[in-house]
Amino acid sequence: MNNRLSLSVFGYAVYLVGLSTLSFVFYWIIRIWIAMGRFTAADGPPGDIGDTEKMFYSFVVPIGYGVIMTLLSFVYRQIVGKYSVHMSAVLIFAINVLITVYLIAQFRIFAFS
């Protein structure tokens, strides 16, 4: 039983480190992308990215990322399940929802500032 517990803890640790790293890299890539768009848009009229782009970067991109990462997380759950490592689907979903809400809040602040 102790071996199963250590495998589950290891499975969660690998999952959280991987998801955190991917989310961090995604956050900075999109943030730089928005900044580049705002910088190049400042040269011409009207001087900033449009409201449609702001809404796209604030909501569509983070929600799309959240959906893709949730699906990949469930694939990871099935793969580690073959090795008797059990991961909670509710925990996976909750973590991805929290990351998505965080990304929405951060991109919304940055895009509309």
Entry keywords:
single chain; 113 residues; mainly alpha
Protein topology:
Layout: H1 2-41, H2 51-81, H3 89-112
Describe the structure.
The chain has helices at 2-41, 51-81, 89-112. The protein is elongated and about 60 Å long. It has three helices and no strands. Helix 1 packs parallel to helix 3 and helix 2 (51-81) packs antiparallel against helix 3.
| Average residue-wise pLDDT | 87
- Number of discrete domains: 1
Q: In percent, how much strand structure appears in the residues?
A: under 5%
- Count helical runs: 3
Secondary-structure element string: HHH
**Total beta-strand segments:** 0
The helix/strand class is mainly alpha
Cα(first) to Cα(last) distance is: 53 Å
